[in-house]
Amino acid sequence: MRLGIPVERRDGETRVAATPETVKKLVAAKHEVLVEAGAGIQS
C-alpha cells in the first residue's frame, strides 16, 4: 500500500501526521511511505 504524509496547511500547525518510528514500522511491513518535502521542518 502507498501512504502519503502531507505538510500541514493550517496556520500555526507544525506537527506531522507520522513519526520517524511509525514510518519505519510501515516500511518494514512492506508499505511505501511518501513524505512531502518540508514536512516537520518547523516542528
Task: Name the beta content range.
Answer: 15-25%
Query: How confident overall, as mean pLDDT?
Result: 91
Give the count of helical stretches. 1
> Reading side by side through the largest sheet, how are the strands ordered?
1-2
* Number of DSSP-assigned strands: 2
Which structural class matches the secondary elements? Answer: alpha+beta
* Silhouette: elongated
Order of helices and strands: EHE
Largest sheet: 2 strands, parallel
Distance between the termini: 27 Å
Would you write up a description of this structure?
This protein has 43 residues and is of the alpha+beta class. The relative contact order is 0.36. A two-stranded parallel sheet has the order 1-2. Helix 1 (20-28) links the parallel strand 1 and strand 2. The model has no long low-confidence stretch (mean pLDDT 91). It has a domain at 2-8 and 17-34. It has one helix spanning 20-28; strands at residues 2-5, 32-35.
Reconstruct the topology from this structure.
Elements: E1 2-5, H1 20-28, E2 32-35
Parallel strand pairs: 1-2
Give a quick summary of the entry.
The protein is α+β, with helices and mostly antiparallel strands and 43 residues long. It has a domain at 2-8 and 17-34. It contains one helix and two strands; from the N terminus they run βαβ.
Which characteristics define this entry?
43 residues; alpha+beta; two-stranded parallel ribbon
